[in-house]
Amino acid sequence: MGSETVVHEIPTIDFSNKDLKPGSSLWSSTCDQIRHALEEYGCFVAKYDNLSTELATQIFCQSKDVFVLPTETKAKNVSEEPFRGYLGKIPQAPLYEGLAIDKATSLEEMRQFVNLMWPNGNDQFCDIAHSYAKQLAALDEMATKLVFESYGVGKHWEPVAAVRSHVLRFLKYEEPDDKDTTVRFAAHTDKNFTTILHQNHLGGLEVQTKDGTWISVNPKPSHFLLMAGDLMKVWSNDRIRACYHRVKLSAGNGERYSIGLFTFTDGAVKVPEELVDEEHPLLYKPFDNREYIRFYVSDEAKKFDNPIKAYCGV
Ligand SMILES: O=C(O)CCC(=O)C(=O)O
Ligand SMILES: [Fe+2]
Fold first, then answer.
1. Which of 92, 217, 243, 294 could form a disulfide bond with 205, CB atoms 3.0-4.6 angstroms apart?
2. pLDDT in tens, 277-300
């Protein structure tokens, strides 16, 4: 018998069905699908029609409008927290720019960002970006709640839900000059709980499977990649994989735009005791997302291959 080739496909899970309600049979089958996807791939594609194609088109137009602003204006978006604020054409990723809006589901915070970028105001950007952030946060909330329920720990959801906050990040990649398809955002896992990524028609996002194969995430206006970050892996006591991903692009296709909603937990979170047993001894102490990121960017963290283990491993 010849060797078998495993064909990988990131699972697609439908969040658009109106029957997806707690207690329904669809709810419990979706719980199983999500759990399987996160344990196997660390991610899944959420099909989410609640966010209209019109809003999906509008948000990418708004993204273009903000990136054409002068660099000195974009650089006014500063943050004391690592990886937030404005990141422009850094040596590790010279074609990349990122603009992050902290607490993007708050209209007040969104207005502050808009006033920094456009001192004369820009209600259109404010309305579109705020409603986009809220819709993605609702998707994240439903999906994460389903994850908790899939492990039978739904009762631990409320306290975690109460400390979640969201960063909305606009990302732009200039068109490369070289013809080779090359990595433009190095492979990594995200340092937060969950991330939802939405790409424009160019695609380019790739996810690594357990056997080391890279698979492409195909872009569609109603498709959102939900990825587990380091903290969801820790929360699950290593049942869930943190999604290892990168961006690859080549010349001739124009600029790439993507948008991410990064969900953080503010305050200490711990592995639910129900996820600890003889087969699964406790692997992590309680963890704090901001503290972990501060550790991650420190010189100390560079000494370790597995910074999350170094930060909160038992
Ligand atoms: O641009 C993308 O699609 C991915 C960006 C990313 O992985 C990140 O910002 O953490
Ligand atoms: Fe990422």
1. 217
2. 999 999 999 999 999 999 999 999
> Does ligand 1 lie within 6 Å of residue 113's CB atom?
no
Return the structure tokens found at 221: 């206006």
From the CA of 86, how far away is ligand 2's center (Å)?
Answer: 16
Q: Which atom of ligand 1 is nearest to the CA of 205?
A: 3
Q: How far is the CA of 264 from the centre of ligand 2 (A)?
A: 13
Q: Which atom of ligand 1 is nearest to the CA of 246?
A: 7
Predicted ipTM of the assembly: 0.99
Model confidence pTM above 0.90: yes
State the number of CA atoms in the 13 A half-sphere of 85 facing the CB.
14
Ligand lying nearest the CA atom of residue 197: 1
